[in-house]
Amino acid sequence: MKTIIEKANILIESLPYIRKFSGKTFVIKYGGAAMVDDELKNAFAQDIVLLNFIGIKPVIVHGGGPKINSIMEKMGKKPTFVQGQRVTDEETVDIVEMVLGGLINKQIVSLINKHGGLAIGLSGKDGNLIEARRKVIRKISPETGVPEIIDLGLVGEITRINPRILTSMEESGFIPVIAPIGTGQKSRTLNINADYVAGAVASSLKAEKLILLTDVEGIKDKKNRLISTLNIKKIKPLISNGTISGGMLPKVQACHNAVEGDVKKTHIIDGRVPHALLLEIFTEEGIGTEIVR
Q1: Residues 122-149: pLDDT tens digits?
Q2: Which residue has the higher pLDDT, 207 or 152?
Q3: Which domain holds residue 198?
C-alpha cells in the first residue's frame, strides 16, 4: 500500500506542471549516452511520448558524434575538433549527412513510434528548415597575440530558421525529429553543431523550454560543485576563467542565445539518468543546471 501511495503522490506533484506546460513547445537536444544505452534510449522515447500525450509539444534535435567518429575511424579518418566543433571536409560532410540524416534519425523516429508516438524525421534541408553559411572561428595566437582564422571546413553557422514545417507538424500532432544539417550557398550541405541548432529552433518557435541532454550532471564550478542556476550575465566570466570549456561551450552558448531569443528557460541535464526529462520537468527539485536571463 505504501508503494501505491508514493505513486499517487508523484502524480499529484506533477499535476501543476502538467497544467502549466500543456500546449507549450519544448525543444530537446538528444545526445550522449542517452543515444547509446538501450535502457536509456527506451526511457527517452517513453518520456517523449508521455509529454506528447499530456499536451506538451516536443521537438527533438539530435546529435550523433560517437557514431560519426566510429565510421570515420573505420574509413581511416581521424576526427578533429576545435572549440567543441567538428572540423568537416568534403568526405566528412558526406559521412555526417549519411549517419545523422539517415541512420540515426530514422532509428530515433522508429523508437518513438514503437512506444506509441507519431514522429517524423527531418534534416535542415527539408522545407528549407535551416539556412546557414560557413562558420568562421577566430582564435588569439599564443605566439603572436594576434587573432587568426581557423578553417573548420564545411561547418555551418545558422543564418535563418524557417519554422513553418515544424508548426505544421505540431498542429497535426506529429513529433519532429531534426538532424542538424543545413543548406548553405549553392545548396551546399553544411554540418552544424546540434546544440546550436536546438537553441536556434527553440528561439524560432518561442519555446517554453530548451533542454540539452549531456553526459555530465550539468555545469560545475572550479571546486567541482554543480551550479544549479546560472544567470546569462555570468557566462562570459566562467568561459574566461576556464570553468566552461570544450564540449560544454556550444551547449552554454546555445542556451544563452535561446534565452536572448525569448525562450523562457534552458536546462543542461544528465542524460545518463533514466527518465531525466521527467525528473527535470515534473519535480520541484529538477536536475542539472538551468540557465536563465
Answers
A1: 999 999 999 999 988 877 666 666 777 8
A2: 207
A3: 21-288
Q: Would you give the distance in Å from CA 220 to the centre of its chain?
A: 19
CATH code, domain carrying 36: 3.40.1160.10
pTM above 0.85, yes or no: yes
The number of distinct structural domains making up the chain is: 1
What residues have CB less than 8 Å from 243, skipping those under 6 apart?
Answer: 219, 220, 221, 222
Residue 40 CA to residue 81 CA, distance in Å, equals 26
